[in-house]
Design a protein that fits this description.
InterPro entries: PBECR3. With 153 residues, the protein is α+β, with helices and mostly antiparallel strands. It is 34% helix and 31% strand. It has one domain. Helix 1 packs across helix 3.
Length: 153
């Protein structure tokens, strides 16, 4: 899995905001049913989601140095592709935030999200990932939900 390759080759052991080699690659594909919902927002021609070492370094530094929560970073590293491929919900992010969509999944009774940014019709990039509270998430427009009892508005 790409996130482990990038972490072990470029990020592990680096200082906070330390320089890294910048590279970018295909992480995983968005499921066709989710892509159909995203296409209501923008017309995508490709299902691939990309990850850069810059984004992974941001996620690493935020959890290791800023929040002092290495356990959350490990869960994100282990679950990154699962959150994207099998989210519980997809929500539209605040316009003021980086990233257009939040793919959200409950893991061990905590809510995790991966923020994806539309670069163009064939590029959807991971820009951030974190654990968050439901109060923040509930304020965002629901685009898709796995739970049929909780349909999008």
């Amino acid at each position: 899995m790409l996130q482990y390759v990038y972490y072990h080759a470029y990020i592990r052991g680096t200082p906070k905001r330390g320089p890294i080699v910048i590279t970018h690659g295909q992480l995983c594909k968005v499921k066709p049913s989710l892509l159909k919902e995203l296409n209501k927002q923008i017309n995508f021609v490709d299902r691939w989601v990309y990850l850069s070492t810059k984004a992974l370094k941001h996620i690493h530094d935020r959890h290791i140095f800023d929040k002092n929560s290495p356990d959350d970073f490990k869960i994100i590293l282990d679950s990154l592709t699962q959150i994207i491929k099998y989210p519980d919900e997809v929500r539209k992010n605040h316009k003021s935030k980086r990233g257009d969509f939040l793919f959200i999944k409950k893991i061990n009774n905590y809510t995790y999200y991966v923020s994806l940014e539309v670069i163009n019709a064939s590029n959807l990039d991971v820009v951030s990932a974190s654990v968050t509270g439901t109060k923040y998430i509930e304020k965002l427009l629901l685009l898709w939900s796995w739970d049929p009892a909780n349909p999008p508005s």
